[in-house]
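Bug report

Summary: structure tokens for CNTP2 protein differ between web form and batch submission.
Environment: batch mode, default settings.
Steps: 1) Submit the sequence below via batch. 2) Compare with the web form result.

Sequence submitted:
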Amino acid sequence: SAIYELSCEAYKHLGKTSNYYWIDPDGSGALGPLKVYCNMTEDKVWTTVYHDLQMQTSVGGNSVEKLSVLQLNYSATMDQISAITSSAEYCEQFISYSCKMSRLLNTPEGNPYTWWVGKANEKHYYWGGSGPGIQKCACGIERNCTDPKYYCNCDADHKQWRKDSGMLSYKEHLPVSQVVVGDLDRPGSEAKVSVGPVRCQGDRNYWNAASFVTSSSHLHFSTFQGETSADISFYFKTSASDGVFLENLGNTDFIKLELKSATEVSFSFDVGNGPVEIVVRSPNPLNDDQWHRVNAERNVKQASLQVDQLPLEVRKAPTEGHTRLELYSQLYVGAAGGQRGFLGCIRSLRMNGVTLDLEERAKVTPGVKPGCSGHCTSYGMYCANGGKCVEKYNGYSCDCSKTAYDGPFCIKDVGAFFEEGMWLRYNFHSPGTSVKDLVSRTLLSSADPEITGPDLSLNKEELSFSFSTTKFPCVLLYVSSYTQDFMAVLVNPTGNLQIRYNLGGTKEPYNIDIDHRNMANGQPHTVNVTRNGRDIVLQLDHYPPTSYSLPATSDIQFNSPKALFLGKVIEIGKIDQDIYKYNTPGFTGCLSRVQFNQIAPLKAALRPTNASSHVHIQGELVESNCGASPLTIPPMSAATDPWHLDSASADFPYNGQAIGDGVNRNSAIIGGVIAVVIFTILCTLVFLIRYMFRHKGTYHTNEAKGAESAESADAAIMNNDPNFTETIDESKKEWLI
């Protein structure tokens, strides 16, 4: 059974973060696994497959050849890439042609000089930013070519460098396997070609699901062709204790998968030697409304069944006898022939590498609904830091709006760098809303009874944030009120942290001093302060929490909170003397993941939300992750992690290094060689600079010559950075041209 997931989407739903992974798009079919880069930072996952053609590959330059053929070799076979593109919702590949007296598509009327070869060895005569059958470049479609008579910048045949580039996004034609460049045989003709990696987004197979509503509900498909080998995998979710998943009959032969009881899955078949049954028993009930994965395989040698990560059950085939499974009836998914069908959800049903479209079939079948609900019961735990799991028709997402975090799992810090004198104020109520409405909605948890406007006060606060700085004393955070009450987190003149509460009833504010720890050491520090009535709990970094108590005379109500300040306090009325002193010059450094009760002031400032109207900023806020260690899902140990690839990756002689953590001897040797090379280059540079200053006159004239032939700045960047195309989005097309 495959130890790899079928797609990047599957890795994402195991809570994995962006990285290189081995995926096996057709299960244990003939394709075999391939290594791809999975980018999990957006709602939909991007899968990227790389090739070996350098960016800005030069062709031509006074060459005599009529055609120059550039071949792209990928880290995967064409069939493997097709498996990815066919199951994706959208794919794209960047392509760029920089030219000097070298025409591209020969618009408006002529035969193209240059073309590219895609899937199935077909030639294509359209370019990036355009589509099939349209012999134009991006500028021709957007009508902004340098010479409006042509539909490509390069077709104007200028002596200066020009460029045509854009995304190819007709996925049935991808990937680009060759670029054939034609107009190079005249003196002075030159061109440079860049092709980005193939990037695909979304996975139509992973969430393709159907819900079986009654025990007689079923879907039928054409007969399963699995004479000598069968490989069936799917996920199921149910609260029923038994039911048939699928069945296909012949005269006497058959193949069947069913949930026999709440803890048993059965795989049975007959190829003419009498029925064989393999049963996997689970120690825990399988009808717990969570997703479970089933993988059943049969070939002429043996048959096997696996459920989740439970041990694989294997049965050897008899040495003599029949080996061909001969089926005639339709394939039934769900109830078949009067048996009790499966109640619940089946998704991602693959038979011999092909995903059956349960969703489409369910749309026209009574008793079966397309899609599935209740993904949050299985995956909600991946929404971290108070993010809420939101059910979607095909999957789930994490709603991070009530948190100080961002990203698909609410684990990405939202932070900002404060320069000296900068500050941010978050008003708890904005003009035009009644104090009562807003404050009770955001500052009080829903469990608190509603408090009327003038009497609004807090019995408890929860504050958490991360900071790093090297300058002190300073004010990190301050909560002001319409009364004398305040709360502050400060770094005092000795570089130690101080939490200060003034809720009335005491002569002096109540201070919690954390001595013996320099907090202004430039490292990220995390502060969590929770107050409930008189009790205060403080947790600093990874140290155990410590408890404090407000003095007996102190009031325990934080009356009429007004605003929260970061970096500096700019408030009218009387202000605490120490805080006034610490206010100048102000905080310099980084603050991130700031949260006060339900409010995330920094996030409101950096991400346009309905709370952004409450924010006022002095100075320019620059977003930064502040080097704060993101709270990731703790990694499994190599022993328990079924996707730990050290041992497995050694078997595949594909491009790219195996995905391991170990630093091997080779890298040490390479490091040494690089150090020597850098040293040699530095010595040469010193020598050259001295030489240049001796010949200052000639140096200046050389510079001028170089400037004429230099290409645009962005091409120079692309030259140096192979990942540059990754960052080019639609909105920047004009800028590239």
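Above is the batch result. After comparison, the two runs are identical; trailing whitespace caused the diff. The chain has a mean pLDDT of 78. Residues 49-202 form a domain with the Jelly Rolls fold (CATH 2.60.120.1000).
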